[in-house]
Design goal:
The protein has about 325 residues and is of the alpha/beta class. It has 2 domains: about 5-125 and about 250-320, 3-Layer(aba) Sandwich (D-Maltodextrin-Binding Protein, domain 2), CATH 3.40.190.150; about 125-240, Periplasmic binding protein-like II (D-Maltodextrin-Binding Protein, domain 2), CATH 3.40.190.10. About 40% of the residues lie in helices and about 20% in strands. It has 14 helices and 9 strands. Strands 1, 2, 3, 4, 5, 6, 7, 8 and 9 form a 9-stranded mixed β-sheet that branches. Helix 2 packs across helix 12 (about 265-275). The protein is globular and about 65 Å long. Mean pLDDT is about 90; it is low at about 1-15 and about 20-25. It holds the Pfam family TctC. InterPro entries: BUG (IPR005064), Bug_dom1 (IPR042100). Keywords: Signal. Belongs to the UPF0065 (bug) family. This is Tripartite tricarboxylate transporter substrate binding protein.
Amino acid sequence: MQHPTTRRLILAGAGSLLAAPAIAQGWEPNRPLRIVVTYPPGGVNDIVARIVAEPLSRELEQPVVVENRAGAGGNIGTQHVIQSPPDGYTILLGTTALFGVNPIVYASSGIDAVRDTTSLGLLGQVANILSVIPGKVEATDLRSFIAEAKRRPMVYGSVGNGSSSHLSATVFMQMAGIEATHVPYRGSSPLVAAMLAKDVDFGFDTSATSTAHIRSGAFRPLAVTTTVRASALPEVPTMQEAGLPGYDLGIWFNLAVAKRTPAPAVARLREALGKAMSQNTVERLKAAFVDPIAVPVTENDAWIAASAGRWQQITRDARIAAD
């Protein structure tokens, strides 16, 4: 669930990641760096990584390349970062799912992003949006949709088993008392394609990848998963406003490196990321429907551990298991 600190620190406009106050000394990159995205190109994770990579490259005076390593709900890419040399050159584009869902869903993997990485900074947050497909679903609001879902079988899509998209749907269905057949896709782009093709009745995906299709009329939005409305779609009610009190599942992104990365490299990367999160970067994220957030760098790992712990409990309660 969304940490109250997040709400207080949502950036109204200008702002930065509140980088470490001291100038990092003792480490400078001398070759290209990589940001590993654990989902295919085109989704919100990829979008966020590419927006941040450009100014980060300028601050570090080295190329910062985005590399997509999808699979196993994000664990393939996460494992790659954790097992890469801990030298600061391989960076993880972290997500709520990787830190707060996967350690439960893929417990046998031994991969735990909270335990095995050090955060460089939080980048932003998005809401998942419950969208239905016009022509397949008659309902125009959440209450009538729940009633319709109780009358007939439905199929829904997510961006992958164990993803925040899947968890958002699972918690929704449990609270609403409905059932539907789950079809997990390998990321946002395949899910959006399936929704546009009307292969599913409904799906949960982020404001970053859903908004254009909502505005075109291809998707009909019923509610967002956060306790505040998404800035991209202020007309769409929250789940709580629409009739599900207590529903709160926001999604955040961060950058992280392997836990054993030397402190000078972590400090330099944090400093560079703090500067990279300029007003221009903030505006680019907002244009991509990502609401930036900031947490003081000294509180970053603790904040993420607390948030991940809440998501892990939700995941246990939802009893999501790997396919």
